[in-house]
Amino acid sequence: MEFALDDDGDLEMVWPTGAHGLRGIGQVWQYMACIGWQNGNPYGPIQGYRLAAEIIASQIAERHHEIDLLIFPFGMCWRHHIELRLKDLLPALQELLGRPVAVETGHNIARLWDKIKPLIIEAHGESESANVRNVSRIIGQLTQLDKDGQEFRYNRRRDGRPTLEGIEYIDVSKFHEAMAGVANFLEGVDTAIDVALNHKRDMAEHYSYLY
Question: What's the chain look like in SS3?
């Protein structure tokens, strides 16, 4: 590896030098992250934050003594994954159902879900399912923990209050399982919307040739 690691596999203590730079090019091509292809595509950030949460969870399973530190990036990554997924789903559902497409810029995931849930139910053509109710419940719990993305990211909120105030314990295994369930459901919805939208666009293009 090109990374300077000590005997425990941790990054060695380094100080900034003239050779350091955030856009430097190393000798190992596997460390080159290709981001230019995305060009605004949400796939990379959405999946990246989920993957980061899963990697952190695997590290917590191996390094229990660091769980009280890793819970913060772990929770932040999971929360941000859900926020990005919901923000991507909303305009796609609006387009599918022929509604005006609006971009959501806020960070309140409960408010986002309240806009998306009826659209999912309408697109599916059935009443509210048990899956939707469970997603609603878990998103509600996540909102109580971290309403606007400050709680896991900072030690204090903008108003000066401590973050995660009154929360003494979080069982990472239960949190991870619940978030994975929500993420899997939303990914399934995303896939179904993508298929339906492609069909809708193909049909529109087809009929445009006829008239």
Answer: CCCCECCCCCECCCCCCCCCCCCCCCCCHHHCCCCCCCCCCCHHHHHHHHHHHHHHHHHHHHCHHHHHHHHHHHHHHHHHHHHHHHHHHHHHHHHHCCCCCCCCCCCCHHHHHHHHHHHHHHHHCCCCCHHHHHHHHHHHHHHHHCCCCCCCCCCECCCCCECCCCCCCCCHHHHHHHHHHHHHHHHHHHHHHHHHHHHHHHHHHHHHHHC
Give tens-digit pLDDT for 126-147: 678 899 999 999 999 999 999 9
Neighbouring residues of 119: CB distance < 8 A, sequence distance ≥ 6: 90, 93, 94, 97, 99
What integer pLDDT is reported at residue 79 of this predicted model? 98
Q: Which residues are 11's β-sheet partners?
A: 5
- For residues 55-77, average pLDDT: 93
Q: What is the mean pLDDT of residues 152-178?
A: 95
Which pair of tokens denotes residue 17?
């030098």
Other Cβ atoms closer than 10 A to 11: 9
Whether 151 has a pLDDT exceeding 50, the answer reads yes
pLDDT value for 91? 95
Q: Which long-range contacts (CB under 8 A, 24 or more apart) does 39-47 make?
A: 42/84, 42/87, 42/88, 45/84, 46/81, 46/84, 46/85, 46/88
